[in-house]
Amino acid sequence: MRVAHELCIFNENLSMKLPLFPLQSVFFPGETVPLHIFEERYKQLVDDCRSEAITFGIPVYINDAIAYGTEVQLVEVVNTYEGGEMDIICVARQVFKVLTFDNQMDGKLYAGGIVEFMESDNDAGDDLRSEVLDKIKKLYDLMQVQFPPTPIDKFNSYAFAHKMGLTFEQEYELLQQTNETHRLQFIKSHLDTTIAVLEQIDRTKAVIEMNGHFRNFDPLDFKDFDAN
Known about the structure:
By secondary structure, this protein is α+β, with helices and mostly antiparallel strands. Helix content is about 30%, strand content about 25%. The chain has 2 domains: about 120 residues, LON domain-like (Archaeosine Trna-guanine Transglycosylase, Chain: A, domain 4); about 80 residues, no CATH class. Strands 1, 2, 3, 4, 5, 6 and 7 form a 7-stranded mixed sheet that branches.
């Protein structure tokens, strides 16, 4: 595993050493993160989270590298099995950039590294948020999936991030966006493309379903038609 290094400013107020649990998954701030823990190093991590009230980071493992991830906080150990395996619930908090990575933190089995937390600008206006929310509703209608009632004041770019057909790579790209307006515009562009494809599929489906059916055709008037 390699860390994807980028030129960045080290800010003491935003940077800290954090235990790291790399996964091939993207988690967005505010979402619930269920994990099954079975490796000894991560059992130790969970024990440390419980006894020391620390958080840990889940860097996204993508393209054989880690560069960005999300800090998570342990909320509950739901089940503990005979062999020490655990089912846990965490909540995702802040997005970070990985500055350094060590396979083992000092005196620990689990990995760690210095991360820089990304400041997020929640500048999006209600008009854009309402437009994107309406497009998500339209997507769900086309897919014949029930859309959960979502007040505009409860909606943000992460609310349906896993439920609108984004690829893993697109989710990772969204995670790196630090501006809410840019995140919503990114989602809007994806929805415009996806909705257009689904509408074309619906039209194609309707044409296919018409084949073999008796239809009334308006007779064409060839009175003034000259074939020569």
